[in-house]
Amino acid sequence: MYVENDAPQQRLSEDAVKVWLIDEAIENVIGFVILGVLFYLDYRFSWKEWIGWILIGLVILSVPGAVWSFVRPKLLYKSWRYDVTEEFLQLKRGVLKEEHNLVPMTKIQSVATTQGPLLRRYGLYTVTVETMASSHAIPALPKDIAIGLRNQIAQYAKIKEVEG
Amino acid sequence: MNRAKRYHPLLLVFDLVNFVKSFFVFFIMLFVVGLGSSSNYFKYGRYVFILVFVLSFFSKIIGWLTHKYELDETSFRLYKGLFTKSELTVPFSKVQNVNRHTTLFHRIFKMTSLSFNTGSAGEDAEVKFEVISRAEADKMENYVERAGKPLPTGLDDDLPSVEKEEQETLPGRTVHFKPTKNDLLKASFTSLSFLFLVPLLFSFYFKIDDIFELEEEKLEGAFSYLLSSWWVLAMILVLIVAVSVAFGIGRTFLKYGKYELSSDEKRIYISKGMVEESAFSIPKEKVQAIEITQSSLKRLLGLAKVKLTSAGSISSGDDALEINTLYPFLPVERAYEMISEILPDYRVTEGMESLPKQSFWIRMLSPSWVWLAATAALYYFRSSIPFWDGAWWVLSVLLLITVYGMRLMDFFHTRYVLNERFVQFKKGSLTTTLFVSKRDKVIEVKVTRNVFQRFLGLASVGTVNRAKPIRHEGVDDVPVELADAFYNWYIGRTKEIHVE
């Protein structure tokens, strides 16, 4: 059973959890501030009734969302796996919805490492891969692993199929 | 063919005709309707119009003077630019399909338009010759096809040899299908093209109404007169039906009258159209996938539409003629036969597996967001819905029945099979689509499993194919064993691909 047992093995950096937690915290604060402002405006300018209902609906959805966003990073980290062979890039991730991708090396067009301020703080990099059809990212890898992976993918992806 | 050339001078006439076509309404407004008017709107409008006209005409002339093309041994070279020169090289090997479109304009001057479509994105995705003589187009098409071969023998570009060659290759083509009159009659009924008259009549009515401002009362009087005597009404009905049918048949004949599907060793050729001719050709190995579509009516009559997926774009310019479809009214059996005739590499497997019982439950029990949203909206606006008080929940129930009906149909239509090198997915509620591709043409696969699917031992599988736009296909809620087989099936592609 490929999907269940023979899954890829490599994992992300453990710091990924911290990065995601901080990220989620920032996003949640911003989200709730915006909601608060909207509530104030709704009260101040007495907007239509249904707008109030939508705002209440948004709060009802956001609270469990916020709670979930603090549980999710740990689980997501646990679920993330990737592997690179000469022929394929394999990815597996997802907490509620598990997703497996299998991308032939010969179809990869470009590979890059990127780093935002949060990742930089922990010395991490994200490796992004572009194919003719899609782009995939392996987030939060330690610097040497990320750069090694990037170079390795670039090496493997050099080989192109005869396009028929 | 190795000197940079300008495009055909008739291109300028073609551009002029197009300009006139697209600004005709403006022209009438400004110079005919508004001629007597002294309002500033019309006065300055006329100046702006003339300015735009002159500028665009000059830019076309400059464009014509500076744009050049040349064909070397392996690629197109396109030159353009007055101050900023640019040179674009498009290798022949990147050409996915070739389209030819001959409009009325082209026919008058015995010309045609030719485009070579590549799989890349953006403006440079096609090498297009808007106006080109037919001989030149034939020559070029032949040349490009020849140059793509690994062993180009006798690749002289002097005219006579190429033309001779071309005449030799033409008999090599096998014609697979050419509709007879009978086929066309059948097609015009199954395509329901006679129904197209109705919207046409409506738009005609509204246009007349706009111009002459028909008086509603008089009109109503006329209607009540017509309705009062049954035989007048019957006559009118018969007349409308007769005209509709004639219209439908005429439409089908115009579209498919000169339809022809042929192939030779390397390529597939499709051509159609009586007045505006279109031709499409694709190398066999560049067919990314096949799609067989059946509407409910076609399913009843056992007909099907077969479409070839190409990585290059299909429609040339503004005509959205579905030129990559094989004749859309083929009997299913014949369609399958034809696929193996024209594409020996492909095979449609007829015995396919259907979904397991568990997926029935997951599909029935998953919430319908469309229905929930619609019901909420109906409830909110319940007071403004006409008819009667309870109308909102009746509509909501009807919608729910429709949603479930579609889900049921989709469940029973869904089939899948992995067969050595091929994958086949079939799905759809009213219109079903059977998708067939080879694993060396699939450029990526994915398997997803949500919480419920994991609980029930199911998974969703998906493929990605090159096309324009990128083609995502897949089936939801297949047994997880199939998902595993699917993954392994795809890994097996390494045996089939050839690396450069």
TrEMBL record, chain A:
Pfam families, sorted: bPH_2
Keyword Transmembrane helix belongs to the record: yes
Domain (YdbS-like PH) ranges: 77-153
InterPro entries the record matches: YdbS-like_PH
Keyword field contains Transmembrane helix: yes
Signal peptide: none
Keywords annotated in UniProt: Membrane, Transmembrane, Transmembrane helix
Superkingdom to which the source organism belongs: Bacteria
Annotated transmembrane regions: 20-41, 53-71
PANTHER family hit by this protein: UPF0699 TRANSMEMBRANE PROTEIN YDBS, UPF0699 TRANSMEMBRANE PROTEIN YDBT
Name the record gives this protein: YdbS-like PH domain-containing protein
Species: Mesobacillus zeae
UniProtKB/TrEMBL annotation, chain B:
Pfam family, any one: bPH_2
Domain YdbS-like PH: 64-143, 264-338, 412-490
Keywords: Membrane, Transmembrane, Transmembrane helix
Membrane-crossing residue ranges in chain numbering: 12-35, 47-67, 187-208, 228-249, 360-381, 387-406
Transcription as UniProt keyword: no
The name this protein goes by in its record: YdbS-like PH domain-containing protein
